[in-house]
Design brief:
single chain, alpha/beta, four-stranded parallel beta sheet
Length: 100
């Protein structure tokens, strides 16, 4: 399948390594401008350098409301968002606290 994402900006959360990084690489190869997100600046910088092209990044821990605000302030617009975040341990959905 050939997907043309030229002219599109894609935010991939949790994209400094693993599946998120693979998604970011694939989207960049499809022509998208990729916004890499991770918790540390060093990992974000390394991922952006590895992807190259028009990739850019924002270090923000989206497990906190402050991190969310930091990401939105830095990158207020995206055509596509890939949410690659999750809870690292098994937890009941209804017992998960939204007020972080």
């Amino acid at each position: 399948m050939n997907i043309d994402l030229n002219g599109k900006t894609v935010l991939v959360t949790g994209s400094t390594e693993g599946i998120g990084f693979g998604i970011a690489v694939g989207l960049a190869r499809a022509g998208a401008t990729v916004i890499v997100n991770g918790r540390t600046q060093a990992k974000v910088d390394a991922a952006v350098a590895s992807i190259g092209g028009s990739a850019r990044g924002v270090a923000a821990d989206l497990g906190s409301i402050g991190g969310h605000h930091r990401l939105v302030a830095a990158e207020p617009r995206a055509d596509i968002v890939v949410s690659n975040l999750g809870i690292f341990q098994p937890a009941d959905f209804f017992e998960t606290d939204d007020a972080i």
